Amino acid sequence: MSRANGTRELYGPRSGTIALGALLLSALLAACSGTTGSVGPAGATGVTGPQGPTTTGSALNISTATAITGTITSVTISGPPVVKFQLVDENGAFIQGLPAADISFTIAQLVPGQNGTSSQWNSYIYGAVTPGACPTGVTTCDGAPKTQATVETATSGTFVDNGNGTYQYTFLKDITKDPIVIYSSTLTHRVGFEIRNLVQANNGPYTFQPSTGDTLGIFSREIVETATCDNCHTSLTAHGGARVEVQYCVMCHNPGTTDPYSDNTLDMKVMIHKIHTGNTLPSIQTVSGPNTTPTLGLGYWIVGHGDSLDNFNTVLYPQDTRNCVTCHVQTIPAATQAANYFTVPTAEACGACHDNVNFATGANHSSGNIIANDSQCTTCHGSTSTINNGQLQVVAAHIIPEVVAATKFQYVVNNVTFKTTAGSIYPVVNFSVVDPTNGNAPYNILTAAPFAGTDPGTGTPVCADDTARLAIDIAWDTSDYTNWGSGVTPATWGQPISLNPLAGCGTATPAPGLAGPDATGAFTMTSPTPLPNPPAANCPPAAGTACPAITNVGVVIEGHPGIVTTGPGATAIPVTSAVSYANVAGAAPVARRVVVDIAKCDVCHSLLSLHGTNRNNNTQVCVACHNPASTDVSERQTLSATTPGIDGLWEQAIDFKHMIHAIHDGSVRGAAGSPFVIYGYGGSINNFTDVVYPGQINRCDACHVGTSYYPVADTAVQATTFLTGLSKETPNPTTVGSPISTSANMSVCSACHVDAATLAHMQQNGGSTTVTKDAEGRTILSTNPAYVETCSVCHGAGGVADVMLVHNIPATAN
Q: Whole-angstrom Cα distance, residue 67 to residue 155?
């Protein structure tokens, strides 16, 4: 998928500097005294200045606009179409002076579907494209000329600028005489334009019926709205940025347009499904994983402008492709045909994702290899089909069983108390697992099948083969989790206390510390591990400072029941993880700060599920482990003493604020020679270089809550540990408790800004990669002002390089 890159603005002198200069000049002039002398001779004629904007009418010149919005006001067809339109700037003021060479038009006809086929746009502006040389990375290309829809530049026909913000264009082509796309005035038509070489403009699609001039109440194929695409793509732009509206895209991306290099269709319904399915397309799967090499007849790849290769076999779609409603949103009034995906199933649309099915031969089309065409699709897959009890209907076939099953479970932390024994404090968690679809009836996790039943696939209890898992994690302190004192081994450093209520799986003996169920169906879990006692000294902000006891803790319930969905074995069910907070002294607890909104994550991810379906759809759960003290050092212990990881490192930070930025910027970091790699469970290698963020990576508001993207105070947020002292690398610290960390703001910004110049800038303004921490992994703040981050001076709200401005975040986003 294409990436829309943000821009960085350059700033000149601030207005305060200019005012100061004027003040000094006036003071100097005032200091001069004496009478005025005689008038001197006239000076030489100065250099002629640049030509100002040309104005021939009442409108502003287009060169003054920072954004352009065009609106087509009418189209008449009695030969070459005549288009009347107007342009306004970002303030709604009319603008003139548009060069004819900078605008192009296209026009298409909408043909209704017949015999099961879907309706389709047919462009009147088209031509044969002969391919050039096969691009690098492709061994074999098709090579035969193919027809493609295109646009007509306004220099081709007759272009008129009326000088008042209104324009007229008469096409060169007489579409009423086209021999292939037969003109019919009763069919729906659409005209659109694209503006290049100027500021960003829209495409102004104008849909109408020529015979009546009607624009409302006519048949129009409106499947997906641009705003829906922009949920992930921020601002959908293609072909150099001039094509930004789905209604415009479909005029060229129709069944009549084909890539001559790959012989792949560029029809929108096929192309978009294939692009988003990407590396999960069935045709490229092998026993060793997807074969992403562009190959004729396999996967999806096309060749674009300048013989550039677009290999979509590498696309990693961030959610399950069965979520048709992510794009086909039926609640949007303008998307009048959004339901077409299940009311008008076709071989072209369905075969786009199921690309190993040959409908002509029947290969891979059900167990019976059924031969079929569009006229027969609704028999099995239509919205009223009763075959197999309706399970072959498109909607039914795209239901995700695990997601449906998850609606029957909810984790609840009822309360958290603390028991003191021999001077140590032990957390006591009262919790329930309930069924929201059954009046919140509680599950008995000791006997209920999803937690203690037999897995038919393995013949063992679901909690014995890890198909079912339940964990209660206790993290501290909520001001910024570090879980100090939790242990000194790679596996425990910086990690919360984790309790397993299912530890007695397969036996009559409950897990140690577990009691219940009580009369309400709730269980109580007492931690056998106490909260650590604070050291007597060596705590922030200075070495001699006494250490405070733990005040507030976060309590997490995560894991998954195991249910048989499609068989033959049980499946882990992604139940949303729960989090609650408690104060050790019994006061009102202070929750961990909220920085991102899970609803924003789910715009692209639909349901954020990680770590084997254990941690689901709650970022407040993630931060308990992905905290400033933690790295992946425990999983890199599998490395040899002389060979680091594939990234050349012995450990990598997994602090949420650094990790998430680095993951989403994965491909950019990789291209810059700074790949982001995390070693996971069992030493698995997670290289995020293939991650291409589909939107504008600089738009912090895509994830952040409010203005939480602004720089933070050193005293409020912990520095990020990159070396714990537990790794095998030398000469870095080898003594536990001497971690090397990066200051909080630098940790965040350096996740994306990896170039040397920017890193140097951060360090010149107080950022540090050598922040010291105490023996428990907490930041020791420097008493030297030179090592205090001053990011907010320039990058804070109202600063000369305000994050909101340099990242192009609209004020309305906050």
A: 23
Inter-residue contact 410 to 436 (CB < 8 Å) = yes
Pair 790, 766: CB distance under 8 Å: yes
Residue 255 contacts residue 265 (beta carbons within 8 Å): yes
Q: Tokens 């060069």 identify what position?
A: 99
Between residues 733 and 148, the one the model is more confident about? 148
DSSP string covering 394-409, please?
HHHHT--HHHHHHTT-
User: How many CB atoms lie under 10 A from the CB of residue 202?
Assistant: 19
Question: CA–CA separation, 624 vs 647, rounded Å?
Answer: 26
Give the bridge partners for 578, in sequence order.
557
- How far apart CA 659 and CA 686 sit, in angstroms, is 12
Residue type, 587: A
- 141 has a pLDDT exceeding 50: yes
- Whether 542 shows a pLDDT value over 70: the answer reads no
Average pLDDT, the chain: 90
3 state SS for 328-369: CCCCCCCCCCCCHHHHCCCHHHHHHHCCCCCCCCCCCCCCCC
- Asked if the bond preceding 50 is cis, omega within 30° of 0, the reply is no
218-242 average pLDDT score: 94
Number of neighbouring beta carbons within 10 Å of residue 627 = 25
Contacts of residue 603, defined as CB under 8 A and 6 or more positions apart, other chains included, come to: 231, 232, 702
CA nearest neighbour of 650 among 570, 731, 569, 581: 731
The predicted structure's pLDDT at residue 538? 66
Task: Output the pLDDT for position 54.
Answer: 46
Contact 340, 329 (CB under 8 A): no
SS3 38: coil
pLDDT number for residue 50: 45
Confidence of residue 11 (pLDDT cuts 50, 70, 90): very low
pLDDT at 90: 96
| Buried b / exposed e along 776-800 (16+ C-beta atoms within 10 A) | bbbbbbbeeeebbbbbeeebbeebe
Q: pLDDT at position 47, please?
A: 56
Q: Rounded to an integer, what distance in angstroms lies between the CA atom of residue 444 and that of residue 556?
A: 19
Q: Which tokens go with 508?
A: 């009559």
CA atoms within 13 A on the CB side of 390: 6
Judged by average pLDDT, the poorest of 7-16, 627-636, 780-789 is 7-16
Distance CA(202)–CA(115), nearest Å, equals 36
Of 673-682, 709-718, 745-754, the least confident = 709-718
Return the amino acid letter for 489: T
For the beta carbon of residue 804, count every other beta carbon within 10 angstroms: 21
pLDDT in tens, 426-438: 999 999 999 999 9
Instruction: Tell me the sheet residues that pair with 554.
Output: 475, 581
Residue 247 is inside which H or E element, if any? helix 246-252
* DSSP result, 248-290: HHHHHSSTT-B-TTT--B--HHHHHHHHHHGGG-GGGEETTEE
Is pLDDT above 70 for 16?
A: no
Burial 72-102 (b: 16+ CB within 10 A, else e): beebebeebbbbbbbbbbeeeebbbbbebeb
- Taking the C-alpha atoms of residue 114 and residue 344, their distance in angstroms, rounded to an integer, is 11
